Amino acid sequence: MKKIAVLTSGGDAPGMNAAIRAVVRSAAARGVSVLGIRRGYAGLLSGECVELGPRSVANIVHRGGTILGTARCEEMKTPQGLQKAADRLAEWEIDGLVLIGGDGTFKGAVELASYSPVR
User: Fold this and answer.
1) Predicted confidence (pLDDT) at residue 64 exceeds the cutoff of 90
2) I need a surface site. Which of 23, 61, 73, 110 has the fewest CB within 10 A?
């Protein structure tokens, strides 16, 4: 794996920033680059991302919510939205996708898996 993406979706919950930080630090230790997707699945579809590294997540654990933000995304419930998400992951050359959220987040991931080889 050379590049992964991380997104937070659904309602804010305690520990989201800590999870983002852990993903970024673990990836960096293995030489894997990380893209943070802003506003969850909505940001994936619209192409909103930021490169994340150890310095960018150094002091986020004490912050509430998620530094990446979240948003509801009805478009991800459509075949067109799922295909658009898969195309975006391919465009960004993403090898793995880390999702931080709840049931709806993971339901979207299951649907997306049928459109994209990214795991």
Assistant:
1) no
2) 110
